[in-house]
Amino acid sequence: MEILDSEKRRARNLIWNAAADYSFEPDFKAYDEDGRADLYWNSIIGAVRKNYGAETIEGLFESLHGCSKEQLFEQLLWLGLENAVYQREAPRRPALPSLRRSYARRAVALDQRADPGDLLATLENAHFCRALGQSEPPLLPRDREMLDALEFPGDLDGPAIAERALAFLHTYFHFTPGETQAQEAEERKRRRPLFAFRRRSEADLLPAVRAFGHGFGEHLVKGQGGGANAEPVQRRLTDYNLAQTEAALRKYMRGYFGAPLYDQSQLESLERELCVDEHQGCHLYYATGDDTHEKLKGYVAAQRRNALRQMELNRAAYEADATRHRTSIRRLTARIRNAMLAYLQPTPVRAASGALDAGHIWRGVYLDDDKVFTRILQSDPGDLSVDILLDASSSQIDRQAVVAAQGYMIAESLTRCHIPVRVSSFCSLSGYTVVTRYRDYYETDKNDRIFNYFTTGCNRDGLAIRALAKGLEDSPSEHKLVILLSDVKPNDVIQMNHSGSFVEYAADNGIQNTAMEIRSLTYKGINVMCVFTGNDDDLPAAHTVYGRNFARIRSLDQFADTVGSLIQNQIRSL
To answer: Is the pLDDT of residue 237 over 60?
Structure first.
């Protein structure tokens, strides 16, 4: 499952249309179980804002924050708000009854599978049965009473409906805003052993994307709310944001991308060095690129399952055309070997045999030195190492199997030529640039891990390349070559610090920043080339960033010759 930027835009437009207001950033958006913008619920969200006022609704849900049952309460209140605003909007929106019936049928079908003890599912099932005009399922007397109280009438204004909602929570859950949170905090404090470090409550760690209905709801980061004066580009408004705490975000990163490559102190040191200037305010996470499946729950579990599924699809796609892929590897290996033989600088060395060096005969006579001959040695291929970096942003989602196969074929060919290779990918999510390491220089038997590649989120190319440059300090070789597989479409939700002001990290800004980081590599004597995976519209960006050092692979049959020529040109310039 992937919540794509296109679905986020669609959800935003649905809310704007229903609210008849395009001047705000929605505080809450809804998606179905497949990550698609939910047509009905986003229409309801916009209508609630229009009918009851943004400040009233935001204040109502803010009053729940920090409560241990916050997630349950907010979903119950949305059922009540849905019931009320539908009565107001249905006469004015002819399509709304049809949308409601369609959603209600799906909800009832899914709720029938729920645990009988699940209060939310029980009330939701009964509510939408009523919406369909069906007989409600058997309910306990208290549950029926709760449902009757929860189905708010349509004749209330904003303050009245907020008062009604809080009265419902107080009656059935003894919730009082502020007081309940304080009591729960005091209770946690009493239970905590003396001198124990404070641990955040479950409520504190509520993810900004969390279960809603039979899909997911995306909330803005607390403290960076919406409204007309909002600055959405500065919010970490991405596929999944646990920005209430950085610790929770790192926990999500581990669940989604796998175990960390570095410990926290190493990460913090890298961030202090790399996340500066244009990348101020960003974070780094390095993953090991494993294919393990930890015991996870909720959204992160769904994301991890889809990542694992893509890994399987990558391998299956490669094997489906294995003969042509292996032929390409053999051809590319031959091209690289020929380039090494032709262009690696020959080195004369003194030896005990070879061509006699007349100028050193005296050493044999007077110093008993038998190395009076000269032999010509080709440079050791160990003098060259290669780093391969795969763009793993969502813009590559339709090319995942192709990019994985291309990365594997290049790495395997270099490995057969005894050239040390490191393979990584990068994407950005929730303000983190995630670098996933599939294999290191001397892990010659780990090329298969490149098929663990999958795409998600955005891509802050400049920071990823800066991180790669730092990693090149570990290279065992004098000469270094970097190969990127990218569509050259940098885009990130965290703005870029540019001459003291913040600008979008996208389009020309992102391209120029990426080009600057590439130039910093070349100034250090590191050769860089790009296998371009994008569309025709992005070719000018590829020219800007890589000059003539890029090539586009239009078919598998061209792969070995095209990439081989690029590598040959780079070896020639060493």
So the answer is: no
